[in-house]
Amino acid sequence: MGDQKNQKETIQLKNTEIASWFTRIYSDALPFIEKKFSTNIVCRGSFIKVSGNNTSIESCIRFLKLLINERTEEKMTLKEIERLIKRNLSDEKDPANIFSEKIDVWSSRKKHIMPKTIGQLKYIRSMRKNDITICFGPAGTGKTYLAVALAIEYLKQERVSRIILTRPAVEAGETLGFLPGDLKEKLFPYLRPLYDALFEMIEAEKVEHLIETGIIEIAPLAYMRGRTLNDSFIILDEAQNSSSMQMKMFLTRLGFNSKIAITGDITQIDLKTNMRSGLVEVKNLLKNIEGISVTELGVKDIIRHHLVQKIINAYKKGREKSESKKKH
Q: How far is CA 172 from CA 63, 262, 265, 317, in A?
């Protein structure tokens, strides 16, 4: 028998174009992948040679084939690669599906947006399938980002004729009257996260043009009253800060050939203590209606700095400890 600790396997790529792509996208990450799988990886010509023990080679080759089969032009960070490796080694079914929901956007820098977690994958599929998707979860899970990306894809493919992005402005007292400046200047700080997402996925000049022509509209939730929104992709962000009445008003704006995505974090409610959050109410009220989906993202779906997960977990434990004391 051969030495089980020094086996070699070879992946033969279809052509030199794929080999060139793989080297360009993943060469910097190979030392990290080698360490994670305890293998040695060598790329030469149209071959990738992997050496190590049988178990590590098998896992490593399965992972490399996943990267090859789902070709992307987006370089992943080492943290994203580590997360993908963990999924590949876990018991989760068909981790390759993580790449199956590419979202087509307009930026020359970022041609596609892809889910980074199984939770995000399910969220994207839910938005595609349902007319109304309610998504709640902690900061950094991509709730708003993925909704904006899908809205852009629908607009680009002419499946809708406009995008409407809205948020409650409770931090400014909703009326915004006491803030300095004209209406646009007053609104901008509260709507800035939506602008940021747009500018990352569409070239700046095109964003400005789409906003000027009304194809993309960004407005506070209070401005939705009395309207019927047809042929639109509508996103309500920070929905935990909408009141019960505002949420009902917003949901009943849905017109023909339109989609609604509602996102929020029920642990960060800024409403007065005597006001019930529309998001808290609606996630239970509408969860069994066909065509409406309720999706929850968790700490494992956070894709920001690794400390963000730890911070949110710490707050969660503190909150649970406080609630436990109140019960006793």
A: 49, 21, 19, 30
Last residue of a domain, one of 38, 71, 99: 99
Neighbours of 123 (CB within 10 A): 29
Label residue 104 left, alpha or beta by phi (over 0 means left) and psi (-120 to 50 means alpha).
beta
Predicted TM-score (pTM) of the model is 0.73
Helix orientation angle between 204-212 and 183-201, rounded to the nearest 10 degrees: 130
> CA 227 from chain center: how many Å?
28
pLDDT tens digits, 169-211: 764 444 444 445 555 566 667 778 888 888 888 888 899 899 9
Name residue 107's amino acid.
S
Query: DSSP per residue over 68-135, as a string?
Result: HHT--SSPPPHHHHHHHHHHHHSS-S-GGGGGS--EE-S-SS--EE--SSHHHHHHHHHHHH-SEEEE
38: amino acid identity, one letter? S
- The answer to whether residues 128 and 287 touch, using CB atoms and an 8 Å cutoff, is no
Domain shared by 145 and 60, yes or no: no
DSSP string, 169-237: -GGGTTT-TTSSS-HHHHHHHHHHHHHHHHHHHS-HHHHHHHHHTTSEEEEEGGGGTT--B-SEEEEE-
Q: What is the CATH number of the domain that holds 94?
A: 3.30.1370.10
Do 141 and 250 belong together in one domain? yes
Q: What is the rounded CA–CA span in Å between residue 305 and residue 307?
A: 5
- pLDDT tens for 57-85 read 888 888 888 888 777 767 778 877 887 78
Q: How many structural domains are present in the chain?
A: 2
Residue 1 lies in a domain: no
The range of the structural domain enclosing residue 312 comes to 103-327
Q: Which of 53, 77, 99 is the last residue of a domain?
A: 99
